[in-house]
UniProtKB/TrEMBL annotation:
Protein name: Alpha-ketoglutarate-dependent dioxygenase AlkB-like domain-containing protein
Gene Ontology BP terms: DNA damage response; fatty acid metabolic process
Organism listed in the record: Chytriomyces confervae
InterPro entries: AlkB-like, AlkB-like_sf, ALKBH7-like
GO CC terms, sorted: mitochondrial matrix
Domain Alpha-ketoglutarate-dependent dioxygenase AlkB-like: 137-229
Pfam family, one: 2OG-FeII_Oxy_2
SUPFAM superfamilies referenced in this protein's UniProt entry, alphabetically: Clavaminate synthase-like (SSF51197)
């Protein structure tokens, strides 16, 4: 498993379920600091246009709190535009925060996810949905336990993490003692597939004390993620959690 020092199992985690956690991959420092900054600037510009106004509180029973989000179709060019994204060097001089640069970065990201899946004998993603940008504000924000909607999304969810670290907690739906935390540093990418995607809920704890990794509280600062998912229904591009 990649980035395994960023994963912490609860003491009561049943050992027979441990192999399932390998269906979560984390690549720390996937983005160079320059590319990270380009993406963070580009994401904030999109949110300014597409998610105007204050952060949303969510309702009392809502899954998510203190957030803005947008689906950015301008970053969803057909993959045929890039003949071999794995050959695109992530050369800093090459990238700025323009849509075209962001497209190249995201095509490289998607190609890397597919290369990871192929190397694990898992079917690759044929059709990525438009990237989804989620901004959680500085403090008093987070996402409650959920599974991304199974009728809209397929087997693969991948994210790029920007600006500040987040703790993501996974809990097996049928075995509540099976809990593990991952620390997602800015600049990392992560991939959820298989059982981790379908059989575990994931959350970013809202309570400041719960937002901890291996006993250490991780301060919640503003944090943006860019997520790509494989789509099931071509007509379904909107985002749902359940
Ligand atoms: C979500 C989600 C994770 C992240 O938006 O459904 O789980 O990394 N986000 O922001
Ligand atoms: Mn989710």
């Amino acid at each position: 498993m990649l980035g395994s020092n960023l994963i912490h199992f609860a003491p009561a985690f049943p050992s027979h379920l441990r192999p399932l956690a390998s269906q979560l991959a984390i690549v720390p420092a996937f983005l160079s600091p320059h590319v990270h900054d380009c993406l963070a600037t580009a994401a904030q510009l999109k949110l300014k246009r597409l998610a105007r106004g204050p952060y949303l509180e969510g309702h009392f029973d809502a899954v998510i709190k203190g957030y803005k989000e947008a689906t950015v179709s301008a970053w969803a060019l057909p993959s045929s535009l890039s003949s071999d994204p794995l050959q695109d060097k992530m050369d800093d001089a090459y990238f700025d925060s323009s849509d075209q640069s962001v497209n190249r970065i995201l095509r490289h990201f998607e190609a890397t996810v597919n290369a990871f899946l192929a190397s694990h004998n898992t079917p690759t993603v044929k059709r990525w949905l438009s990237p989804h940008v989620l901004d959680l504000r500085d403090g008093n924000s987070g996402i409650g336990a959920h599974v991304d909607h199974k009728s809209a999304f397929g087997d693969v969810i991948a994210g790029l993490c920007l600006i500040s670290p987040a703790v993501m907690r996974f809990r097996h739906i049928e075995e509540p003692a099976a809990v593990f935390d991952v620390l997602l540093p800015p600049g990392c990418m992560y991939i959820q597939t298989g059982s981790v995607r379908h059989m575990f809920t994931h959350e970013i704890p809202i309570s400041p004390l719960e937002h901890s990794f291996n006993g250490k509280v991780i301060e919640r600062k503003q944090r943006i993620s860019i997520m790509v998912r494989d789509g099931l229904d071509p007509a379904q591009a909107s985002f749902k959690r359940s």
